[in-house]
Amino acid sequence: MNRSIRRLYLTIAGGFVALAVLLGYWQVVAASGLEDRSGNLQTAQRDRLIDRGRILTADGTVLAASRARRVDGQRIFERVYPQGSLAAHAVGYASEQQGKTGLEATWNRFLAGSFGTEPLLQRLNLSEKKGADLHTYLRSDVQRVATQALGAQRGAVVALDPRTGGVLAMASSPTFDPSAINTDFASINTQPGAPLLNRATGGTYPPGSTFKVVTATAALESDLFRATSRFDDTGSFSTPGGPIRNFGGRRFGEHTLRAALTNSINTTFARIGTTLGAAQLGATMSAYGFGERPPIDLPENEVVISGRRRDGQLLPNDENGADVARIAIGQERLDVTPLQMAMVVQAIANDGTLLAPRLMQRITDDGGSVVRQHVPEDLGQVADPQTAAELAGMMQNVVDEGTGTAAALSGLSVAGKTGTAETADSGRNQAWFIGFAPVEDPQVAVAVVIEDTPSTGGEVAAPVAAQVMRAALEG
Amino acid sequence: MTGRRTLELGVLAPAAVLGLLGLASVASARADAFETGPLPGAIAVLFVFLAMHIALRLRAPLADPYLLPIVGLLTAIGLVELHRIDPALAEDQAIWVAVGGAVFVGVLALLPDHHLLERYRYMIGLGGVLLLVATMIFGTRINGSKLWIEIGGGQTVQLGEVAKVMIVIFLAGYLREKRELLAIPTRRRMGIPVPPMSALGPVLAFLAAALLLVVVLNDFGSGLLFFGVFLAMVYIATGRAWYVGIGAALFAVGALAIYLAVPRIEARVDGWLTPFDDPQGQGFQLVQSLYALAEGGILGPGLGRGFLVTEQGTTVIPALETDFIFSAVATELGLVGGVAILLGYLLLVQRGFAIAMDANDGFSKLLAGGLTAVVGIQAFLIIGGVIRLIPLTGVTLPFMSYGGSSVVTNFGLVAILLVVSHRAQAERSREPAPPPAEVEPARE
Q1: Nearest to residue A174, comparing CAs of A435, A459, A452?
Q2: Domain carrying residue B19
Q3: Domains (ranges, CATH) in chain A?
Q4: B229 touching A, CB under 8 A?
Q5: Do A31 and B280 touch (CB under 8 A)?
Q6: In total, how many domains does chain B have?
Q7: Does any CB of chain A come closer than 8 Å to the CB of residue B299?
Q8: Is the ipTM of this complex over 0.85?
């Protein structure tokens, strides 16, 4: 019997060894993988104990902060957004139930104080977690004007500093109050107009005539055309996909490339596109960043790639056999974000050099010392400086005497391009304006889109852009 | 030989110190003020163990000296963790520990020789079955399982806990009587030796009863525990592994049928196989247990410093104080603490089987082995459940889970083990060279 008892003991001991091994698996091997799962109450509690860093505008306005409160002898923190919905889409939210979005997600490691040697010290209980402050390029005055100018209209505004790539304003309408995310998420999420969507980076629209700036860049860079190249418009340009006509059925007769942009002449740009071909136009698109996710410091799922899509699948910019004539005038499956179009004008305003758009200007730790500083990131030369200057001059004409006169600012030179893309509903448009100012020394580049409006880009988007540029230049 | 008792006192002391240190850790985690509230309760529990120690000195001086300190340590950690979850739970539990202590002393006082139990084995076995039947008939359903009987004042008792011990006593007597019949098969069927029906009948009846328990009480854990202990005792009695194999296979087939037929069991198994498919519903409890274990890491934040109770006062893992008490400890003390608890139970099992091997007769061996198997298998089932080794079963973790019936029964169980231990030593010292009281069954 003793032999049986000994064997029984060994069997049970074997079971306990299995328990110890599996326990070690969960507590050591699998631990870090479990940590990141949503719905992990332990991780949520850990977040609650951290004095999360603030998110500020360039002028020191606090967009997000933490407020301490004592519960059961422990200090726990809740996230507050003192400015309510101001820049809500860029800031995002840090919510226990709903997760993190926007800058709250991108810079979480710093905001939560897990950077440098801190994690090690915290593990050894030598240091308390203290979040770092995130100082953005956002300017509260510009942001406020952008939000107010959009008003009740659905749409978005992106304003960039063309010299750094810094985002001066990022507005999306309708918007939401991140303070209400924990309590009202369901109702916010189901409101008409999808207020949680960041239209500036995640909303895609056909670019319409604003895309002619890209076509013009390709034309000038190809050395086949100059601003003074002459064209003759008969009111129609025939393509294998059917004839292309001008807006309002107009005929312009003899004109230059400069005039073609000023008056947004479809037939001429269709002709240019056909001459350049898919490869050349596609190369310029790629140089501007189409077809790739803009490298802005926002979560990937909030930033949509601009380009041509078929059945939701992104097509190569230089797709063989594409209807280049229609691509050249911003049609033919093109879907772009306001951020991408802002990048286009940023590059032109910056002597042809594209910069990575960036919200984070610097991060400072508890003691105020800078732990991270943004250095403008060069994404490549889209056009050489002369081409950029030529384009700028042509775009200035648009605002001075063409379709974009509503963007004019008294005493300042403004360059721009309007766009009016028709939607499936006849009589409803996606209205665009992209531009920058002042032309001699560009300090702000802006892209505005107004959704689903009976008006044109020149009528509704250009005035918004004017207000935003004025705010940026006056501040 | 009071040396054993002095050794016991010497090992009890560090167990007590560890318990008090745990209490201090919980108190210091509450930064507001150092609370002295639980101190009288802790001292009372110390006195309960001191009383049990004195009872052993008087009634069973030769009994194993390590059993009581191990039980003391597990009880202390359980109490500290309960106090940390909700002080009111620990107060309740401390009262039950006192009652358990009284039962422990009572067993030592009234049962000088456990062979008395052998004489009344059928009566005790019948009593155990009646307790289970009573639970089936008068039981109240809690969380879908029918394990509790209301005894007025909102109090409930789990008679199944007591029945568990009674049935082990019966089986020890029964198997001791029939082991030759079971061990020496008379016929072969398809090459497999088959014992006579007169011996096999009750075995099959027991298997059927265990499955019935699962269905009627809706309690897979108890069924598995009863049957596991039964197989363990059959193995001790006969030394035949294939009995266990066939029994386990039959139970597995029965369990599979139940899995397919009873939705609740099916849900539990699915919650075990794929907890992350439904982390907010069926898998919630297990998934949060695993998250908590992961958060604990190797060393854990220390007792009182883990995240176990939310702001609203609810526990992070449902049933934390009962089924998931091990998760609570392993979260706060990390892998090191969790393995220490495992070693504690393994040591308890080792001492129990040592007592069984040390015993001089078959009944004593079967009794001690069976009682030890109860504790070992039960600890394995519930710890394995909360760390996802096996499907979650609602059995308690002996000495640690919140619940009076479990604590009181297990203290009584340990008292019987210690009586067996003392008797074996006493018999041996009386007869310097005793002839083996039991002859090992002839082996082929």
Answers
A1: A452
A2: 3-430
A3: 141-177+200-360+376-474 (3.40.710.10)
A4: no
A5: no
A6: 1
A7: no
A8: yes
